[in-house]
Amino acid sequence: MANLEPSKQRRGLVAINGAMAVIITLLVVQIWLLNATLETFLAGHKGAVLPAAIFSGLAFLGSLAVDFFVTRVDQESRK
Amino acid sequence: MPFLRSPSKEPLWKDEFSVFTSDERYVTRRQFTKFLTLASLGMFVGNLWILAKSRFAKTQASPTVEVAKTGEIPVHGVKLFTYPTPQNHCILIRTSEEEYLAYSQKCTHLSCAVYYSAKEDRLECPCHQGFFSIKDGSVLQGPPPRSLPQITLERDGARLLAVGVKGS
What we know:
B: 2 domains, four-stranded antiparallel beta sheet
């Protein structure tokens, strides 16, 4: 970290770290969601299966968007 | 050991396909983010799989099977039977003169066979001390994550019939 310019590259790093925090949070929520859905499904309750799949899909799209953001910031910082 | 490093001014391909062997152990933030996104996709696919299973899986037929005659077992006595297939072991308990209850014998924790404890009036799993209520099969204590599936019973004269499974 010592050789970083205190400018665009540093800001890019902060943005990427923030994006990683967001994506990790989403992933933890998805892991919990998958576990809870499986438990309720095995217990014979099917009502939560569809909302859980939709929410998990939205979380994945969010992760994908963050991934694109990270790629873009990375490319920007290399210019 | 630093697994993450800051992006260099080198072109991306030089960063990812470095000629230095010592660089191979590094995982860039971008690679790590891609890995997390892939894991997120895995979670989503898992949820889709559960959804597909709940929508398209064939529901198991519930045959009507005679499991015992009334009065065949004493009060607080048990009888083992299989329902709805020979692989599904179940336990029938006579809790009072007129009440019979039946549950799957497979513990919902790690599938050990549960047994009836007349002294405690509950179903107990000997493997990890998981206890289930005799009233509805709900978990009283221990690691089981959900209730025991209950076998629906009907009386036909002196015959006790198993007609379905609740919560399987």
